[in-house]
Write a structure and sequence with these properties.
It is a single chain. The chain is mainly beta and about 160 residues long. It has a domain at about 50-155: Jelly Rolls (Sandwich). The chain is about 10% helix and about 35% strand. It has helices at about 80-85, 85-90, 150-155; strands spanning about 50-55, 55-65, 65-75, 95-105, 105-110, 115-120, 120-125, 130-135, 140-145. A six-stranded antiparallel sheet has the order 1-2-3-9-4-7, with no helix packed on it.
Length: about 160
């Protein structure tokens, strides 16, 4: 007996109809991607440093052996006599500042009339007994090195401003 051969008839197929898209539930919906605002590394928080504000000035301090490394950010409009003097109670700033200005400009005046302008990038050595303020429209960023109350002695600086 002859085998019957199966006849295949072509089947017409239709593509499945596309489903209407439904909005995902709010909890799973992705928010539009926004680019993170660029943070200026000169102003970004310093990892591992103690951070505090005094008179509008941001001070970040980290230990390095027996010294301290500080980043001090003086805001636009800062003036020592207006912003810090009421907090510390001295007529002038009696702190020595030794470091490097990486941004901005600061004006320093001593009681004898001596005026010094420091503008980034510049190494600074400011003796105790001064008034100072930010010049211009950029905050001053100072990287400073000190030995707390022994800075003057340890760095061989005069106790107050004097002319050589």
């Amino acid at each position: 007996m002859a085998k019957k051969q199966a006849v295949r008839t072509p089947v017409k197929t239709t593509a499945p109809k596309p489903r209407a898209k439904r909005a995902a539930p709010a909890a799973t919906r992705k928010a539009p991607t926004r680019r993170a605002a660029k943070v200026d590394p000169l102003l970004a928080p310093v990892r591992g440093a103690e951070r505090r504000k005094i008179g509008g000035v941001t001070v970040e301090v980290a230990r390095a052996g027996s010294a301290r490394v500080k980043r001090v950010i003086y805001p636009v409009g800062f003036r020592w006599s207006r912003d810090i003097r009421p907090l510390v109670g001295t007529e002038l700033c009696m702190h020595a500042h030794v470091g490097f200005i990486v941004q901005g400009e600061i004006h320093i005046e001593y009681p004898d009339g001596c005026v010094v302008e420091h503008k980034a990038p510049q190494v600074v050595s400011i003796e105790p007994g001064h008034e100072g303020w930010v010049v211009g429209k950029k905050p001053v960023v100072l990287i400073e090195f000190d030995f707390e109350n022994q800075t003057v002695r340890r760095l061989g600086m005069p106790k107050t401003h004097r002319h050589a």
